[in-house]
Amino acid sequence: MITDDPKEMKQRLTEYVNSASDALETLSTLNPADFDLSKRPEPSSEYGQYIQALNNLNTARTWLGIATEQLHDLLNQYNDTLIEATQEQRKEEAQ
Question: Cys-Cys link to 48, which of 41, 61, 78, 80 (CB 3.0-4.6 A)?
């Protein structure tokens, strides 16, 4: 679970989306055909930046996937609460 706190969840989701967006921006501006792929990528090189952006995008994708599952669970939970409240009101009205 990412978090139970709605404010913290909003902050984390925003961070994951921003991280994915930044990674996509980096990936879209670099061309692997321009890299010397025979050498190990240095972190400051474009090749290194490309590899880091791939890693960041994958990390964001993983966490957003987990968040999606958590949001689905919360949706079901709140929907069940609404159904229960509706059923209770109908019982009370029938009495």
Answer: 41
CA distance 89 to 62: 41
Per-residue pLDDT of 26-84, as tens digits, reads 999 999 999 999 999 998 999 999 999 999 999 999 999 998 999 999 999 999 999 99
Distance, CA of 34 to CA of 36 (rounded, Å): 7
48 in a structural domain:
yes
- Do residues 12 and 3 touch, judged by C-beta distance below 8 A? yes
Domain containing residue 51: 6-94
pTM: 0.80
With contact defined as beta carbons under 8 Å apart, do 23 and 57 qualify? yes
H/E stretch holding 13: helix 6-29
* 8 A C-beta contact, residue 46 and residue 35: yes
